[in-house]
Design brief:
The strands form two sheets. This protein has a four-stranded mixed sheet, with helices on one face. About 45% of the residues are buried. It is α+β, with helices and mostly antiparallel strands. Helix 6 (about 235-245) packs across helix 10. It has helices at about 10-25, 45-50, 70-80, 90-105, 105-120, 235-245, 255-265, 265-270, 275-300, 305-330, 340-355, 365-375; strands at about 125, 145, 150-155, 170-175, 185-190, 200-205, 210-225, 225-230. It starts with 9 loop residues before the first helix and ends with a helix. The protein has twelve helices and eight strands. The radius of gyration is 21 Å and the shape is globular. The chain folds into three domains: about 10-120, Butyryl-Coa Dehydrogenase, subunit A, domain 1 (Orthogonal Bundle); about 125-230, Butyryl-CoA Dehydrogenase, subunit A, domain 2 (Beta Barrel); about 245-375, Butyryl-CoA Dehydrogenase, subunit A, domain 3 (Up-down Bundle).
């Protein structure tokens, strides 16, 4: 597997400077930065970002997008994550739902959802994982049976980020028996999270914050026009969707603000442990090159699924190890409620949420098997 080094071009660097100026004006002085993609849900910020053309960037202009490439989106996302910007409202729809509907959806679905996604006004969650089917998505038990003009869905989804505040989620469900191959008979459907028969139960973090949810579907009706792609072809579609999810800057930048705060406000700690900080920064720079390489490959028309799996594995492992290293170096109690010391507050928050880093988007053990099969 080869990751070719790439440099940001002059036009891409101009875009970076534009985003930085935007953030200076849009983020309040007392902005409390988030940890990567686990940032706050701020519809007004998402709408302002969309007004600049930085949501739905890679979608075609005929659907409200901006006909830009994966590298341009990489530049914008990197700046947003660097600043800990409140991207939670539009994040999932922009990163993967929009491209999925563009590729597999009907023309009616594209006309209905993509302009709203590009405007930052339509928010999606992910409906893949289940209590007994986390990374092993072929084991999903949520079932959809034919009804009059649509499907009747029953099942449970977990780790559904933002389901309590988002508008829709795309579920993976079984529409026919698996027979000899568990990957057959799966389908994807767009489900309105306000539908009758849906119960959303919070799954709080250890610090009491609420991001994840359990979503229970009991006889939820999904009309035929909200089936994504072909019935029974869900496995091929969902693996394509996961490629969008796995290789962006969000897979190694959850700890960027943590490192930045240490470098800016704990000079004595950095000086005492210069080698440790040097290793962390070097690893992040290497991961950045790998992630940028995936974006370049996508713009070149390639489908770098194996490279994406590697970036996600190495990136989220790096995130967890960074938290562990900093926690060992600081050797003092930290609290999420310490408003006087942003570094200590972020470290406490990261300590509580870091276990989820290697779970989101498929466990690293599963991704190593994906990479191994692709390298054979």
């Amino acid at each position: 597997m080869i990751f070719t080094p790439n440099a940001i071009r002059a036009d891409e660097d101009r875009l970076r400077r534009e985003v930085r100026e935007f953030l200076k004006s849009e983020l309040p002085a007392d902005h409390s930065p988030g940890l990567g993609m686990s940032a706050d849900h701020d519809p007004a910020f998402s709408a302002a970002l969309a007004a600049r053309g930085w949501v739905g960037m890679a979608l075609p202009s005929r659907y409200g997008g901006h006909d830009r490439g994966a590298v341009d989106r990489f530049v914008v996302v990197e700046e947003l994550l660097s600043a800990g910007a409140p991207i939670g409202a539009h994040w999932i729809a922009d990163r993967q739902t929009g491209p999925l509907i563009l590729r597999f959806g009907t023309e009616d679905q594209r006309q209905r959802f993509l302009p709203e996604i590009a405007a930052g006004k339509c928010w999606f969650s992910i409906g893949m994982s289940e209590p007994d089917a986390g990374s092993d998505l072929a084991a999903v038990r949520t079932r959809a049976e034919r009804g009059d003009g649509g499907w009747i869905v029953n099942g449970t989804k977990v780790w559904t980020s933002g389901a309590h505040i988002n508008h829709y989620f795309i579920i993976l469900c079984r529409t026919s028996a698996s027979e000899d191959d568990r990957h057959h008979g799966l389908s994807q459907m767009i489900v309105d999270l306000g539908s009758s028969g849906i119960t959303i139960n919070p799954i709080p973090f250890l610090d009491g914050s609420h991001h994840f949810n359990e979503v229970v579907l009991e006889d939820v009706f999904v009309p035929d026009e909200l089936v994504v792609g072909e019935v029974g072809h869900g496995w091929t579609q969902v693996t394509s969707e996961l490629a969008y999810e796995r290789a962006g800057p969000d897979r190694y930048m959850s700890v960027f603000q943590l490192l930045q705060q240490a470098l800016s406000h704990r000079p004595e700690l950095v000086a005492e442990h210069a080698a440790a900080f040097g290793r962390l920064v070097a690893r992040m720079a290497t991961l950045r090159q790998a992630s940028l390489g995936v974006a370049v490959a996508i713009d070149d028309g390639e489908a770098p699924a194996v490279q994406a799996a590697m970036v996600k594995d190495l990136g989220t492992t790096f995130e967890q190890e960074t938290v562990a290293v900093l926690r060992d170096l600081i050797d003092e109690p930290v609290s999420v409620d310490d408003h006087r010391d942003l570094f200590a507050s972020l470290l406490a928050r990261a300590t509580l949420t870091a276990p989820s880093f290697t779970l989101r988007g498929g466990t690293n053990e599963i991704l190593r098997s994906v990479a191994f099969k692709g390298l054979k």
